Amino acid sequence: MQVLLLSTYDLGHQPFSLASPAAKLKSAGAAVTCNDLAVDSLNEDAVKGADLIGLYLQMHTATRLSVALLPRLKALNPKAHIAFYGLYAPLNADYLKSIGGDSFIGGEFEDGLVEIYLDLAESNPSAGSDLTSTANLDFDRPLRDDLPSLDCYAHLNVGDGSTKIVGYTEASRGCKHKCRHCPIVPVYQGRFRIIPADVVLADIRQQINPKSGPAAEHISFGDPDFLNGPRHAMDIVTALHEEFPEITYDATIKVEHLLKHADLLPMLKETGCLFITTAVESVEEDVLRLLDKGHTHDDFKRAAKLAQEIGLTLAPTFVPFTPWTTKQGFRHLLDTIAELGLVENVAPIQLAIRLLIPNGSYLLDLPEIEPHLLGYDQEALSHRWQNTDESVEEFCSQIQEIVEIGARDNQSRIETFKALYKATQQACGIDTPTLPDLQPLPLLTIPAMSEPWFCCAEPSQEQLSRL
Question: Poorest-confidence range of 114-123, 261-270, 402-411, 448-457?
Answer without folding.
Answer: 448-457
